[in-house]
Amino acid sequence: MRKSLLACFFIAALLLTSQASLYASYGLNVIENDSIGVIYFNLGKAYSVLREQVKNFDKTADANTKNQVEEMLKTMQADSPFGKDLTVAKISEALEKWHNDAVFIPTGGVWISVAKDLQPKAVIEAQIKVDKLAELVKSFPNAQGIDFTPKNNVISLRLPGIALPIEISSERIVVGSVSAIPQQLGADWQPYYKRVSSPDQHLAVELDVQTMIEKVLDLGQQRSAATSEKVCASNMRIMLAATEMYNMDNEKMLREVDMKALVADQYLKEAMVCPDGGAYSARGDLSAEGEISCSIHNTVADLKKFDGPAKPQPKIDVASQLPDPRLQHIVRARIFADTAGLLLAVAVNDEPTRQQFKEMLQQNLKMAEQQLSQNKGDARVETVKKMFAALSHVDKAPWLGVSIKQTENEQILVGTAVVGVLAAIAIPNFQKARLQARKSACFANQRVLLGATEMYNMDNAVMLSELNIETLVQKNYIKSAPVCPENGVYSNSGDLAKDGNVKCSVHGSID
């Protein structure tokens, strides 16, 4: 009997463990010990909440909320992709159409991390119709030449200029090399991991500020070092030009590199120095056809990179590179939004500096409240005022910041999602606008070709009856051959010496 019970417990434990791993988000795998920044946003929850609120807006919103939303919608630009008379009903209609098409429906989080090598990783959890998404993406600008063909219902590709793999499946989009197994995290990232593992988390941003600053400054230093051979080549060109000028001005010409003479006679402001410590000398006679060479980088015509042992880079003085030296004491930053509220905080590793930041924060918040009190009637200002009323200070070393507790926390979530969801709704409008722009550009090309042909026919006895772009370019009636934005072929419709017209194989003719 005991053995049977133990077996049951063991089987149950296995089932629960497998279920837990099943429900664990794949996006958590972007968090690694060498991450210096991670962003999580529960787009699936935001999408569901927004869709529900928009659908039931007239039933659930009070008069004040309706007025605020109407005022916000009136601020939309008249030439926006949504049109000038945008209403909640129109947004709801477009949102439902997008949902029913089901090309891309957010189901979970958007996860983005950046590692110490500054390489990003991203996971977007969504229900995706891979074949339809492929058709949609093919219509985007600069998508020509990229293979979006799904294989086993998965699109695998690399975009030009982006050295990151992209994989699109029916469940998610993965950008970069994301491990299939979550990493065992150290103390720095454990609190963040615990936060984003909760279904109650809406938004979570954590930055290793100190490491990020150091990495960015270090990258700038590396880029500077990587151009040392170019600096050396520039030195050699300047020295050669200075030597040539010296030889034109002086009867006794320089046959070798003579930096002292060039500086003494003011042909050079100062002696040229190779950034990698190379020595400059003449290769051949500089009064004839000689050239200057460097013992490390060779000559300008055959420039070589420094392949010796790497020179130790001087330690970066972080404080001197910042607008305020006190910023070097901010080691970490957090933004958390969940069902309980919103937290914005920074960790400061120097207590006197933390106290200074605390005073500055209190003063700025007080000033902001005073300014808000003078702006009455603006719907957006009223929303911010509500947030200020629910605000409290975070003052627990090393952390410093503010938290906002409110009963309707999903408003934070929805507010963050609005831009993204509306952008998704706008895609068909942008597509239409893009196609119209390409057609307009093609028609402009046709007008140029027709005008150039008419000018040619007025100037020449033998007129062009058919379109001849090569002749128009050779005779300087057009600077270069116009190209259709969608690779259409231009030809003539009728006799161009009479009443003919120019047409495109894709867009047709203007008339």
Q: How is this structure best described in words?
A:
- By secondary structure, the protein is α+β, with helices and mostly antiparallel strands.
- It has a domain at 418-509: Pantoate--beta-alanine Ligase, Chain: A,domain 2.
- Helices cover 43% and strands 19% of the residues.
- The protein contains 15 helices and 17 strands.
- It has helices spanning 2-23, 43-55, 57-60, 63-74, 88-101, 130-138, 190-196, 209-226, 228-249, 259-264, 318-321, 351-373, 379-389, 410-459, 469-474; strands spanning 35-41, 104-115, 120-128, 155-157, 166-168, 172-175, 201-207, 280-283, 291-294, 298-299, 330-338, 341-348, 391-396, 399-405, 490-493, 501-504, 508-509.
- The chain starts with a helix and ends with a strand.
- Mean pLDDT is 79; it is low at 1-23 and 408-430.
Summary tags:
single chain, 511 residues, alpha+beta, Pantoate--beta-alanine Ligase, Chain: A,domain 2, 3-stranded antiparallel β-sheet, 15 helices, disordered N terminus
Overall pLDDT level: 79
pLDDT < 50 stretches: 1-23, 408-430
Spatial order of strands in the largest sheet = 4-5-6-3-2-1-7-11-12-14-13
* Principal-axes shape call: extended
The end-to-end span amounts to 91 Å
Radius of gyration: 33 Å
Q: From the 3D structure, determine the CATH topology of the domain at 418-509.
A: Pantoate--beta-alanine Ligase, Chain: A,domain 2
Largest sheet: 11 strands, antiparallel
